[in-house]
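Working notes for the structural subgroup meeting. M.R. asked for a predicted model of this chain before we commit to crystallization trials. I am recording the input and output together here so anyone reviewing the notebook later can reproduce the run.

Input as submitted:
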Amino acid sequence: MEKALEHKMWENEEIKNMFLALGVTKGTEEDSKALNVEKLRYGKIIIMTDADVDGSHIATLMLTFFFREMKALVENGHIYLATPPLFQYKKGKVERYCWTEAERDALIAEFGSKGAHIQRYKGLGEMNAEQLWETTMNPETRILRQVTIESAAEADRIFSMLMGDDVPPRREFIEKHATYAKIDA
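Returned structure, recorded in token form:
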């Protein structure tokens, strides 16, 4: 998206459909970054991706788009990230979801691994409908992280670095911040 020609992006059917579904319209030719949100159909726009490196990449692409083209939605607190679990731990009557390896390890330390069934979710598609509802979609139990912009200049710098052509800074950022990412040398 960062490299796409502006007119090419607006010709994309998925982009058009996103604007249509949300009920927002882009600004005038003089101010193409302005966004008319008067007819926004949703209070929360939730980005839901797999809890792995690919999912993080997709979320980053979506966040870049929202930051660059629909910034008002971010600034007004409408953008959220869903947080699906990474693991499910089952042993006897104990059945819990874990969002981090540390949570999984704590359960193993408390209840043991012998006789336990530990499932690593590689994607949302590995969950059945009930599990997906219970962990990620049910408003009573889901974990949503609201996307905020503490520093617009810093956010702009990070998005440009993550989506740009210069690989070494991106690699360094990923190695420092992505605890589960493995980068081939």
